[in-house]
Each structure stands twice: as C-alpha cells, then as structure tokens.
Amino acid sequence: MQRIKKNIIATFFSLLLISSLSAVPACAAVGGPNLKVTIVETNPYPAKIGEYLTLTVQVENIGGDKADNVDIEIVPQYPFSLDSQANAVKNIGVLYPGRTATKEFHLFVDKNAQKGVRSIDVRTKTDKDSPWSEKSFDIRIGTETFNSKGTVELKEVISEPQVFMPGDRGTITVTLTNTATTPTVTIGGNDFDTNARIQAAVLRPLSDGIVVLDAPYEDMGILGPGDSIKLTFNVKVTEEATEGTHNLELAIEGNSFDYNSKKNIPLKVDSSNIMVIPSKELTMINGKATIEFDVANTHPNEFNSVSIKPEAEGIRFYPAEYFIGPMNPDELFTIEFTAVADDSWNPRNEEGANMSLTANYNNGINRHVNTVGNLNFTSVSGSTESSPKAVLAGGLIIIAVPAAFLFYRRRKK
After folding, report:
1. Sheet harboring 133-141: ordered strands across?
2. Are 224 and 318 in the same domain?
3. Which DSSP string do the residues of 253-290 spell out, in sequence order?
4. Which of left, alpha, beta for 326 (phi over 0: left; psi -120 to 50: alpha)?
5. How far apart, in whole angstroms, are the C-alpha atoms of residue 303 and residue 270?
6. Can you tell me the distance from the alpha carbon of 384 to that of 45, in angstroms, rounded to the nearest whole number?
7. Domain that holds residue 127
8. In this structure, is residue 147 part of a structural domain?
9. Distance (Å, rounded) from C-alpha 119 to C-alpha 101?
C-alpha cells in the first residue's frame, strides 16, 4: 500500500512538471525575434544646452524569427523633451533576422540644464501584442573645459578587412596620439601641462550603405605627452552598398571646444572575388579524367581559407574539395582533380555532364561563396593520345614511301 502511494505521488509531480513546462510562453522559445537597440549617432555631440538634439536609434533583429511589427519609443526625462508626444513612437514594421533599421528622434535640451551626463530610455516591442522592452542610454550635455594644452591627432587607421565586400561586417581601428613632446608648456607667462583629454569620440557614416554598430566612446581619460590610445568601431556594409570609397567622420571632443576635431576615415568596398577557370579540356576517357583549373584572387586584399569544390552528376572527384588556404591579391593557383565516373554515368550522352565549381573563402570574419556553373564534361572511348606503336608505324610509313620511290627510279635506269 505504501509503495502504491509513493507511485501516485511521483506520477502527480511528474504531471505537474509537464504542465508547468507546457505553460512556458511561446515568446521564450529559442529562435524567436530578439531586438538589439543602439544609439548610433547623437547630433550634435555633446548635446548643446537650449538647443535641439537629434538621436539616431538603430534596431537589429538578432533572433531567429522575423518581428512582425516593430515599434520604437523614446521616453524622455528632464532635461530632454519632445516637441510633440505624437513623435514619441515610430513604427518600423516587419524586421527579418539579421536586418537593421534606424529612426531619428528630435529632442529639446532645456535651457537651464547643467553640464554632465543624463540618461534617456528607449523602448521597443516586436509586435502590437508583445510587451515593451526598455534600455537606458547616457547622453552627454555641454563641454567640460580643461587647462591642459595637449593636442590629439589621428595617427593610424586600420580596417579589417582592408577592403569590404557588400554584406560584410568588420572593424575600423583608429590610433589617437598626444603630439606634445614636453610635460609642460609656457604660454603668456603661465605654465600649463601638456596632457590631452579625450572626452568623447564618435564615428559617423557620411554615405548610405555603411552602418556604425557602436555607441560613442566617452571619458577616455588623459593621454600624456607622446601617449596613444586605440579605439575600435564595429561597422557593417549593407548588401546595397555601392562599390568605391565611402567616407566616415571621426568626431573627437578634446580638452575644450578649441581642441575638438573631425577626421575623415575612408572605407573601401569592392565586390570582386575568386575566379575559377578551366585550364584543360573537360574530357572523360573511358570513365576517367584528370582536370585542371586556374584559381585567381581578383579582390584588392588577401582572402583566407580558400577552397574549391567540384560537383557533377554521376562523377566522383578526388580530392572531394581542394583546400588552398590564403591567397594574396592577383595570386594565381593551379589545382588538379581526378574525376571518376560512377554507375550512373552515361558515356553515350552527347550533351555530356554539367559540372559546377564552388569557391569558398573568408574576407576578414565574413564567409563568402560563389559558384561557376555550366561547365560541360564530354566523353570519348579509348585514348586520344597516340600510342608509341602507332607513332613508330607512322614513322616507318613516312620513311618507306620515299625509299620505295627511289628504288623504283634506280631500277628504271
């Protein structure tokens, strides 16, 4: 009897556990829409007291499913205010996984606001029936003034990858250096230190197709004479970006307004890729062939993990995929495959077999694939090369004909 009671209790708790699991809302399931919010631009930066401020808010769907009807809402707090409450919510609509969208909000900074950092809340939801998700952002107001006289200059810019392809993500790393060479400097009879302060740094795209994924850097601290600091910004090139050089603006807030500066940062976009060209006739002889291809990197920078994979119905290839590895710009690499027909191969097919080659490669962290198709495999029976016996026989015939002719002339004489 005791054992039966224990079994009943165990069954009850098992059913309770199953019912609690089934009660988990669908929105918590892995693979649903998930929104990431970033303020990608504050203009002007820092915000000016008594003037309007434009916030560019970016929303990215990092989930596994589409968001049906995305809304963004700004919840301003003093000293920020909206010109109309009707402008607090902006609709994006459908946002598919991996896609981003941006909206601009215009706020007024109260004329009595104090210099410093204030917060503002941004709310988003994936559709009209889903709950709001809220995130707080810091906005700098006014400019702090310091008596230091160090000057910040842009020393180096490194893009990774060096040249982007449409759809690529990567980084732009800038090196800022305090160009002062002595600890102090005397100006007008007064001594000043030569430290340089970086109060803020923001990277802004100046053309369509380029998205900066990071918020501005703030309070970078003090750079002594000759010291440097590296700032890395994550950027994305959209699929619709045009080829060529795109410009971004690096705005730096220094010791005071006089030490603020703006630098031009170039970003190159080029869609050229891996080319694969047959270097031998694609002919199957008695169900077997050795085929050769020239592989060329036509892109302006190095590709990594380059591999070529052939495919054709009824044919097996050895190796199944040829791994080349890194390829420099304009580098040409010749590769070779052994093709062997299987039982489904029809050697009497006059049209031959359609063959394709797929090139896989990395541009920075981005994996790319392009395919060369409509390569025709033909088939012949027997060897197309002349055998040694045939060559010898042909040579003997060539020699024998003039010898017989000379013998005939001599007998006639």
Report:
1. 89-95, 67-75, 116-125, 133-141
2. no
3. E-SSGGG-EEEEEEEEE----EEEEE-S--EEETTEEE
4. beta
5. 13
6. 75
7. 29-141
8. yes
9. 22
- Selection from 294, 297, 291, 299 nearest residue 277 by Cα: 294
Could you tell me if 241 and 355 lie in one domain? no
CB of 326 closer than 8 Å to CB of 303: yes
Q: Which tens digit of pLDDT belongs to each residue from 278-334?
A: 998 888 888 899 999 999 999 999 999 999 999 988 889 999 999 999 999 999 999
The DSSP secondary structure of 211-230, one letter per residue, reads EE-SPPEEEEEEE-TT-EEE
Which residue, among 182, 211, 212, 214, has the nearest Cα to 195 in the 3D structure? 182
Structure tokens at 77: 């707090």
What string of DSSP letters covers 106-147?
Answer: EEEE-TTPPSEEEEEEEEEESSTTSPPEEEEEEEEES-----
Name the stretches of the chain with pLDDT < 70: 1-31, 344-352, 381-413
Q: Does 235 lie in the same domain as 325?
A: no
Using the 3D structure, point to which of 226, 254, 269 is the last residue of a domain.
269
Q: Determine the length of the chain.
A: 413
- Report yes or no on 55 lying in a domain: yes
Q: How many structural domains comprise the chain?
A: 3
- Give whole-number Cα distances, 357 to 19, 264, 310, 330, 371, in Å: 52, 41, 4, 20, 6
How far apart CA 166 and CA 235 sit, in angstroms, is 12
Minimal CA–CA distance to 195: which of 167, 220, 175?
Answer: 220
How many Cβ atoms from other residues are within 10 Å of residue 307's Cβ? 17
**C-alpha torsion angle, residues 20, 21, 27, 33 (rounded to 10):** 160
H/E stretch holding 401? helix 388-412
- The verdict on 125 and 182 lying in the same domain is no
The verdict on residue 19 lying in a domain is no
Looking at the whole model, is its pTM more than 0.85? no
